[in-house]
Specification:
With about 190 residues, the protein is an alpha/beta fold. It is about 35% helix and about 25% strand. Helix 1 packs across helix 6.
Length: about 190
Amino acid sequence: MAHPRPLHGVRVAILVTDGFEQVELTGPRDALHAAGATTSIVSPGGPSVQGWNHDDKADAFKVDVSVADTAPSNFDALLLPGGAKNADRLRIENKCVLFVHAMQIAKKPIAAICHAPWILIETDYVRGRKLTSWPSLRTDVVNAGGEWLDRPVVSDDLLVTSRKPDDIPQFNDAMVALFAAREAAAGNAR
């Protein structure tokens, strides 16, 4: 029987700034909490970040830690919510790009939805990988050396990607499975 809280003790960074798609943070975060993980909102700004519901302002969320004041060693996994404004701002923030790149070098699992793969393009992480995203990123992914697939969820090694809010249930399942498998492997290596 599967463990009811397979992510017990797993620490997940949620990297966002103003303009993230709110359901792409709250839906996956709820799934992570239900699986036993702890999450921290990491941002280049603060003290809060502004969520959006498509084109309308939604709720503000407290930033738990500035990206400048933390390190990938404080986390076991990374969640990247989408939202075009959020993703576009993150990919030009050097500290955010360096944080994501350091997570990749440390072989931490990453879950990215919607526009979030833009920052993965900045770190050259999509080269040679299969992934999905919001459809408008297809050319960017292909030009960066990735293989773009039009599927609700695509898993490739330590990366899980998804297209849009409608895919969140499948995204959550794949994200929890990836993070749990990675944690089990890390636990066995300790």
